[in-house]
């Protein structure tokens, strides 16, 4: 009887994650891959914009340093140029980097919750939502592109002459909408992973706290 009671206690406090079907696992993996790929592309664009701004600044500096103002045209940076540079840096570089770091830590902890001591780096997860900015930016740009195409058609009254532009803008709009929805689903998945990992670790700590109070142990 004592062994039976101990076996019941083991079954009661054993932490088991419900297995998911292969189709669900593959669907989650595809959503995460698409989200990560989109942010990686935004990160590459951010690196390109940064290098472009640095190149322009270096070329302007050469004109002043080597006094070749007659041979080159230095770029005068004003208030708007600095604001644009900062926005490009935040939207296309910092946000995707925060997303990729947050997703990587969240998925790693979810795969091995027993070894995840609720990292202090969890704060990166809160930066994943602002990472939607690049996707929203692309989606709004595609909306404006599609609307401007339709406006040109209405002005010229010649839909057949612009059918390729209508088709390309429509496909671009659908693609950006699909990527935006996928980004939102990916963020929700990471949010669920984080909550599952947190619940797992809290439950495990509660079980470890209750074990010494049990008769005969486990």
From TrEMBL:
Keywords linked to the UniProt accession: Membrane, Transmembrane, Transmembrane helix
Keyword match Membrane: yes
Membrane-spanning intervals of the chain: 30-51, 82-102, 123-141, 161-181
Protein name from the UniProt record: Uncharacterized protein
């Amino acid at each position: 009887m004592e062994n039976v009671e101990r076996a019941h206690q083991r079954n009661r406090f054993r932490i088991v994650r419900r297995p998911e079907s292969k189709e669900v696992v593959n669907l989650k993996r595809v959503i995460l891959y698409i989200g990560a790929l989109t942010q990686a592309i935004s990160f590459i664009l951010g690196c390109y914009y940064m290098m472009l701004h640095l190149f322009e600044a270096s070329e302007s500096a050469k004109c002043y340093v080597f006094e070749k103002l007659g041979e080159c045209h230095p770029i005068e940076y004003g208030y708007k140029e600095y604001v644009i540079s900062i926005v490009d840096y935040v939207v296309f570089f910092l946000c995707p980097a925060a997303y990729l770091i947050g997703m990587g830590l969240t998925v790693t902890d979810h795969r091995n919750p027993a070894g995840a001591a609720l990292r202090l780096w969890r704060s990166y997860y809160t930066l994943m939502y602002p990472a939607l900015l690049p996707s929203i930016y692309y989606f709004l740009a595609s909306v404006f592109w599609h609307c401007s195409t339709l406006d040109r058609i209405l002005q010229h009254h010649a839909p057949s002459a612009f059918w390729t532009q209508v088709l390309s803008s429509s496909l671009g709009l659908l693609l950006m909408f699909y990527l935006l929805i996928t980004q939102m689903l990916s963020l929700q998945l990471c949010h669920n992973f984080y909550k599952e990992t947190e619940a797992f670790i809290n439950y495990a700590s509660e079980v470890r706290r209750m074990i010494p109070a049990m008769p005969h142990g486990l």
